[in-house]
Here is the input.
Amino acid sequence: MKKRNSYGSIALNAPYTVWSVIFIVVPLFIVAYYAFTDKSGAFTFDNILELGEYNDIFFTSIWYSVLATVIALLISYPFAYFLSRQSEKSRRLQMMLVMLPMWMNLLIRTYSWMNILERNGLINNLLGMVGIEPVKMIGTPGAVIFGMVYNYLPYMILPIYTVMSKIEPSLLEAAEDLGCNGINKLRRVIMPLSLPGVVSGITMVFVPSVSTFYISQKLGGGKIMLVGDAIERQMQSAYNYNLGASLSLVLMVMIIISMAIMNKFSDEEGGMVI
Amino acid sequence: MKKITATILALVMCVSMFCFASCGSVNDTVENLEGTYTQEYAGTTLNVFNWGEYISDGSEGSLHVNKAFEKVTGIRVNYSTYDSNESMYAKMKSEAVSYDIVIPSDYMIQRLISENMLQKIDYSKISNYKNILDEYKNLYFDENDEYSVPYSVGMVGLIYNTEMVEEAPTSWSAMWDEKYKDNILTFSNPRDSFAIAQFLLGIDLNTTDKAEWDRAANKLKEQNKVLQGRVMDEVFNKMEAGNAALAPYYAGDFLTMKDINDDLEFVYPKEGTNIFVDSICIPENAKNYEAALMYINFLLEPEVALANAEYICYATPNKAVLTNEEYSLKDNKILYPAEADKPKTQYFHDLDSSIRSYYEKLWEDVLRES
Here is the structure.
């Protein structure tokens, strides 16, 4: 049975509703307007058709973000599991260590990594001390993917850890009692129960990775162009707002589609939807 | 116990902050003013939009130009900065804010004038205009001196690390040299990058021939395989730490880098190089025109211009500074080369939008292949 909104709940919701209309809904319409008009303001599909030329850039962005997401997942999943099984005190300490880098701004973190990965940076200096030739790190795809993993890893750990710590230990005991070995326990109990966390972790790492531009500019040495860079360039230096907007629009549509697919997985488990 | 420690810590912090705020006095006094300044507009606000790090700001005992102006006129200076002509233009075009003073480069001034975005300056109110060198008057972008007052001048050159190059480069072709693979940096903006290829190929920087832009783009694509990266201000860090052997950048900025890393040297390549003049302008929608005139006159004050020239490290178009014994860069051979050593130079001109979007497209291809 649907309940009608009372005046009280309308009043409570008003601040955020106003906020989201002004800062989310209206800008979305502006993006759509620019994407489907030309410089003079006349309706056109040209900007969207022109995007064919950006296929390779879209592909690179998606490929790098997928790699970053997979690496982040491989690191986070076992860590989140072990963390959730530990004592309250040790959990708190380790969670703080996970969050610690987030206390600093993304720009500063990335800029520091630029200096660490540099030709004469910290890592190459250490390698030099043990007599290893400098390795080229800055300006490579590896550096960009590393930057994505480093910056967004906490967003993967947090949701997985949250669902993992809600798994009742009694369920695992029951599985053992009923004859599950280690692998089956993981496959049949832990994985299905943690799926919603994994899904939101993947979304929270993939979405910012696929649209990043700062990380690719600094760690990619300005040689690697992702969709975010292409959009930034259209807006900042090429002044083609229309093309920039259509790139953004298509990126958004792609993100929505991938989120819808991801949510299908978690829906089946009756889990959370972002 | 914890609470006591926290309280003490907080107290210490408060006291030290108070100390920083009050103990450090900012230099905001100009001894000798040549122009006349009144309190007529005291209490009003002047919106100034300038390049980052482009005004003496009181650091290390230097003159705090904006504070000094506030002291003399009572006008509040609302100062903000940009990092490229293009982003400044985008901001002006958006009309979200109106500025009273902007300091763009030559070709951008040409565009702003052609789009009626600047207003004429009343030079009769700028008594210090006499300090400007004649060679910087009536430049191509403002032939009759109506809209702009020169502020700072610079040239691009090639910075190299003597420890990392075999012989001192004399040509832009060093930036294509396989020997320095992965040790070469270049600009991350299209116009400056194209300019280097254009000088090397002997093409006019402001050509309207698309085939010539194609040739320059192909040249840039050849460079991709030897490049370490495309940077703007990151170049400071990278060159100072010896992370790259070659990088083109502005002469004045080289002096800053040289202070930190003495292995760095600088050359104006023989093919020629880009020269720019950044000039002070008043936007069409300025709200405080009279105060803006006063501010321009103030920036041309010998003492103020000296402080700025020392701080920015770029060449100054101000006679009064060049003849001042106190000016430490007066005899600098890089900023002020002798007549015989002067490189061939070319200004950027504003190109029409079809050429602009053409080279932007080419630039994207260059980036994509790297």
Observations:
- Residues 45-148+281-335 of chain B form a domain with the D-Maltodextrin-Binding Protein; domain 2 fold (CATH 3.40.190.10).
- The longest strand of chain B covers residues 149-161.
- The interface with chain A takes residues 84, 86-87, 89-90, 182-183, 188-190, 224, 227-231, 234, 237-238, 241-244, 357, 360, 364, 367-368, 370 of chain B (CB under 8 Å).
- Residues 2-23 of chain B form the longest helix (22 residues).
